Amino acid sequence: MPVDPLWNSTRVRELAAQRRTGALIRLGREHRGWTLAALGGRLGCSPATVSRLERRARIADLALANQAALEVGMPLHVLMTSLAPPSPTAAAATTVTLSPRPAEEDPMRRRTLLTATAAAGPTALLMGLDDALADTPAPSGAGPLDARLATARDLYDKGAHRQLLVLLPGLLADGHVGVASRRSLDQARLSSVYCLASAVLIKLGAYDRARLTADRACTWAQVSGSPLATAAAARELAIVLRHQNQHAAAQRLMTSAAMAMEATGLRTAASSAAYAQMLCTLAYTAARGEQRADALTMIEEARRAARQLPAISPVGRLFPTSPAAVDLYAVGIHWALGDAGAALEAGKNLRAAQFPTAERKARMGTDMARAWWAWNRPEQTARSLLHAYRASPGEVRDRPAIRGIVQELADRHPRVSGVRELRTAMARSA
Fold this sequence. Notes:
71% of the residues lie in helices and 0% in strands. The chain is built from 24 helices and no strands.
């Protein structure tokens, strides 16, 4: 399809180089002769929202910007250039402290800095991630991105949230450097980094930040054209929307993601696992939105989709879905629907050995604990939480809702078996 000459003009190149995505959208809209209301109608938002999108120097909602760019006919390479971070300064690239010595010449100083940062609380680490999201830092020069991304995923799987927060700014920086290649693989890789950031931010209850990273994950996934990356990003965004009580929007997004994945033909085990995961997330989203029939229908469909998957998902798979993982989702779905008895029944045969990562083993414990707590069984609640804590302390310590159950247990049932041990463990790791 031929590109409109507008997008090859000097004015467009200037605006793209200045990172003025909103101004480019306005230019495209006016070129088509559309009013703010006309474009807003196509985007499903108000004229005022379009006006803010066009006027702001920094894009806050990347998913909306991407949609608007597509509507006005902006080519992907122009959009990518306008979204790229500004080139870092040489000074920022060579030092990590006030010392004038180059960072690469002082590995002890760098290790000390990282150790101190990892020991800090999540609040301090979130501030560092905020800085990286506001202004992409200089390239880290820390080695191949694939290997470091695998290390970061391993930290997530272990529930090592604080250590992961230390790594994320460098991963984001190097991911943005990588997309300068305009290769779809590098674009999908950057989307994966943003997905990982969203996942850990959701764990910590930092939903506004997670919305930003999920939006960026969706944009880069769409640019890459990868169905798996698009599905992963859509899932993270839907989870954020659910936590922000936008259940209908989350359900629409997951329905669309599941249909898109099914349309690929599910020719590989990875795509079949992704489809089953989309159905699980859709079912849980429906349950949190009090759509009982939809939730139960979708989880049964997920069970059917997972029948051909291995009992334990292979290491490294983007969507580690298995029949046991679907049953664990069923626990959460029944709990969300207010049926603790059905939740406990759904999880009665689950065992930690069915899950390959510490994060999933701990998640089994916390999900069962929520069901036992709703069933008014404090001793079983404490036992499940202790199992979760022993598998991955971060899954209990860092999640606000689970910390709340621990606190209620300690307040209301201080003498119940396991409560004192749980409270001591939590205090020790704080």
